[in-house]
Design brief:
Elements (H helix, E strand, L loop, with lengths): L1 E5 L4 H12 L3 E6 L4 H5 L3 E4 L5 H8 L4 E4 L10 H22 L3 E5 L11 E4 L12 H15 L6 E7 L2 E2 L6 H11 L4 E2 L5 E2 L2 E2 H14 L9 E5 L5 E2 H11 L8 E2 L1 H18 L7 H7 L3 E3 L2 H7 L7 H18 L2
Parallel strand pairs: 1-2, 1-4, 2-3, 4-5, 5-7, 6-15, 7-12, 8-11, 9-14
Antiparallel strand pairs: 10-13
């Protein structure tokens, strides 16, 4: 199958490109600039991005399926920036599929589209999206998912995969920020202790996307649906974050700010970004992700996608630790 992959040079995109190629699919990668990691895999690259309808139409020509993972995930910015990439860009993907008679679309959504500020303990796909999302990123991802699933038809089959908190070797945002704050002594936990979350190791997310790609076609039972994808191992927020810290060689963090202080810090994040030039750890997005329980029932993905998280959390953390150890050795 010839598959167009958007966001192919990102953390998830590179994992998907490798997984699809290993499975025998011909991958066409849409990238904003040439990516050496993709070139090493022998993957065809087309320069462009989803904000250009013309480039999307050109890139999708001759493809049997599209896997759309490109998104703006930066924690701060203008709402227009998130909308242009996450919503308008997704509409361009849908238009390119229609123009080129592409039959299948797998969309990378996120479990956070149902986060509403309350504890979510073991909810499934019947959980509704909130009327008001806690951050622009989650609001635009929710809207994009709605557009994708509404486009499901006898001509184009669509499915949405909802991983939660992707992590693993080479993850570029969460762990580097945690490590930098831990190194400076400025890291603090926030939210009420004991709240649980479930996450998704990068290889497990890749497996879920491949399973969806192999099953999605017009009339398929998974068409028009969304699926939560996680480790299936809920843990406390502090347990997960401290697991990452230990993998990076730092001691566990126990210091904590109150929920009220965390909300204040999140509201001040744009100003702090302007003053310091760096992204604060406590933002609207991180408050939504780590400020309350958010873990999900993945029975539907197990049953209908054949999904089974093959890399457990302990094994994933060991892989992160080994990866970072190799990086330190290379940099000596």
């Amino acid at each position: 199958m010839r598959v167009l992959l958007t966001g192919a040079s990102g953390f998830l995109g590179r994992a998907l490109a490798r997984r699809f190629a290993d499975a025998g699919h011909a991958v066409v990668a849409l990238v904003r600039e040439p990516c050496a990691a993709l070139a090493e895999l022998g993957i065809e690259q087309i320069e462009g991005d989803v904000t250009s309808l013309d480039r999307m139409i050109t890139a999708a020509a001759g493809c049997d399926a599209v896997v759309h993972t490109a998104a703006r995930v930066a924690p701060l910015g203008r709402i227009e920036d998130w909308y242009d990439v996450n919503v308008a860009g997704t509409d361009h993907v849908l238009a390119a599929c229609e123009y080129n008679d592409v039959r299948s679309l797998v969309f990378t959504s996120c479990a956070g589209v149902v986060i509403d500020g309350s504890d979510l303990n073991g909810v499934n796909e019947t959980q509704s999206m909130p009327m008001r999302a806690p951050s622009p990123y989650l609001a635009t991802k929710a809207l994009a998912e709605q557009h994708v699933l509404a486009a499901n038809s006898p001509r184009l089959a669509t499915v949405a995969i909802r991983p939660h908190l992707l992590w693993g070797p080479g993850e570029p945002r969460l762990l580097p920020r945690l490590a930098a704050l831990a190194r400076s002594g400025k890291l603090r936990l926030f939210g009420e202790p004991g709240r649980k979350i479930d996450t998704c190791y990068i290889d497990n997310a890749a497996d879920a996307h491949l399973a969806a790609l192999d099953r999605i076609e017009p009339g398929a039972s998974i068409a028009g649906k969304a699926y939560f994808v996680t480790q299936g191992e809920p843990a406390t927020v502090e347990g997960f974050l401290n697991g990452l810290l230990r993998a990076a060689g730092f001691p566990a963090e126990t210091r904590r700010v109150s929920p009220g202080v965390a909300r204040l810090l999140a509201s001040l994040a744009p100003l702090r970004r302007t003053l310091t030039g760096s992204d604060p750890f406590v933002t609207a997005d991180s408050l939504a992700l780590f400020g309350q329980s958010a873990w999900f029932n993945i029975a539907a993905a197990r049953r209908e996608l054949g999904y089974a998280p093959r890399v457990g959390t302990a094994e994933g953390l060991a892989r992160v630790s080994a990866h970072l150890a190799r990086e330190r050795m290379r940099n000596k």
